[in-house]
Amino acid sequence: MNRFSDTASASPLANPLLLVMVLAAFTSVLNNSMVNVAIPTISSDLGVAPSSSGWVITAFSIVFATGVALYGRVSDSYSFRGTFLAGLVVFGAGSLTCALAPTFGFLVAGRAIQAAGAAAIPALAFGSVARLFAAGQRGVVFGTLSSAVGLGAATGPVIGGLGVSAFGWRVLFYGTLAVVCLLFIAAWRFLPDLNAERARQPHRFARLDLPGGLLLALGAAALLYGVTAANHAGLGAPLAWGTLVVSIVMIAGFALRIRSAAHPFVPPALFANLQFLSASGIALLSQAAFIGGGLFLTPLLLINELGLSAFKTGLVIAPGAFAVALLAPTIGRLSDKFGPRPVLGISLSCLLTGLLFMSAFAVGAAPWLVAVALVIASTGYAGVTSPAANAASKALSTRIAGVGFGIYQLFFFMGAGTGAAVFGTVLSARQRIGEAAVNPLYRGGDATAAYSDAYLVACVAVLFAMMLLIGLGRAEPAPVDPA
Questions:
Q1: Per-residue pLDDT reduced to its tens digit, 341-363
Q2: pTM of whole model > 0.70?
Q3: Which residues pair with 166 in a beta bridge?
Q4: Helices marked H in 168-301 — which ranges?
Q5: Residue 264 region, left (φ>0) first, then alpha (ψ -120 to 50), else beta?
Q6: What is the dihedral of CA 443, 286, 342, 359, to 10 degrees?
Q7: The pLDDT value given to residue 10
Q8: Minimal CA–CA distance to 225: which of 241, 238, 243?
Q9: Ramachandran class of 364: left when φ > 0, alpha when ψ lies in -120 to 50, beta otherwise
Q10: Reduced to 3 states, what is the DSSP secondary structure of residue 49?
Q11: Where, by residue number, does the polypeptide cross the bilayer (predicted)?
């Protein structure tokens, strides 16, 4: 471990651990973004109705979001390298299942298996930063990881479109499997075993608090499923509200469990730490606003209302994604130098400006104005991801960095999942009503007024995130340690 610590101290970007994690983060995002463009082809090839084809994405999202916290907790007690390698094996097995899937059901199952393995990547990548890098170096490292995420999101649609056009949709999963195999070799060679001394401690399994972890995972999964069901069938549908009730019961059970267990899944004090909660809330709300508002609504606007092809839509969206990839490391350095709060304040203001510009002027206008609005919003989003993670890391000790960042990443990905469903519901409701746009600055036609309102709701989410900046404070909080 000293070898890695010394490398990190000298030059964090030269650390082989970071190189492995950057490639892993890029692969996990690329895997999902390139599959999005293949859904129409998959639906046609496997004879699935368009309304059901979304489960290719939903199954992955639900398992992925709920798995990050579990992997983080396991990595605190068991071998960091072993946990990461196990995740890659499961990721690869899911990719092979998808590539060979004879039916749509097998494909959805394979996507769930993929997610069960890929969830190890964000949990362990961000958790390892808090363990191996000094506080003044974490911002640039988080920014580099965020840059890999942005690059994966930008190149995924292009690679996916080319692959599907030339070889069919199955080649995407064979390609993912090949990259995962390379990652496994690199991880075996370069990743340190951070818990060598804890691996010999007795009762490790009991200390995991598996019941607490399952309650959290099931509660989060039920919440995502319930919000998705409400988007499709309405909140009054028994499946929607019933699942949401189950979610509330599970999360309440988790809260009781961590207060009574001898070795709780996560220290209860973590949820009383204002620094951690504020950073996690900012991540959730900004992710919901940008992913749900910017990247979910925009393709619908461009294709359904402006009549653009999928390829041209990708060209409109790509500059914003590349902005995230280019700016994230630099903004991460600024959060190291000036602290997360001022950087987050400026970045959230930029994100708000981009979404407000979209709601007022870009909706219903020329595609190039949509691209400009996305670039502005993406610049702000690039300045949120790494400083928010940097702020959360200040509330975590090295002993709970894994589960702490697992919980943080759970907030992060829950924002993306719930944001798309919420803004989709707003869009559908406003389209049914057919009234003029709420935004007084909107000058577009009635056909796109509902999109203006949906983007305006995304602006409200950013305003709530800005209010949470108060909770970050000026002084660094004491790290939270397990009871």
A1: 899 999 999 999 999 999 999 99
A2: yes
A3: none
A4: 170-190, 204-207, 210-233, 238-260, 274-287, 297-300
A5: beta
A6: 0
A7: 47
A8: 243
A9: left
A10: coil
A11: 12-34, 54-72, 84-107, 113-133, 140-159, 171-191, 212-233, 239-258, 270-297, 309-331, 343-362, 368-389, 410-429, 449-470
The three-class DSSP label of residue 322 is: helix
DSSP conformation letters of 106-130: HHHHHHHHHHHHHTHHHHHHHHHHH
Question: Per-residue confidence at 35, pLDDT binned at 50, 70, 90?
Answer: confident
Alpha helices (H) along 306-400? 310-338, 340-357, 367-393
Give me the pLDDT at residue 478, please: 52
Q: Residue 421 contacts by C-beta under 8 Å, 6 or more apart in sequence? A: 227, 228, 230, 231, 292
Superfamily for domain range 273-473: MFS general substrate transporter like domains (1.20.1250.20)
Angle at 58 between CA 386 and CA 171, to 5 degrees: 90
Burial of residue 261 (CB within 10 Å: 0-12, 13-18, 19+) is: middle
pLDDT of residue 459: 94
- The encoded tokens of residue 294 equal 């910017």
CATH number of 1-207: 1.20.1250.20
Residue that has been written with the tokens 């992060």 in this structure = 412
Which carries the bigger pLDDT value, residue 285 or residue 68?
A: 285
Sign of CA dihedral 287, 292, 298, 303: positive
Which residue, 167, 178, 127, is CA-closest to 23? 178
Task: Check: CB of residue 381 under 8 Å from CB of residue 353.
Answer: no
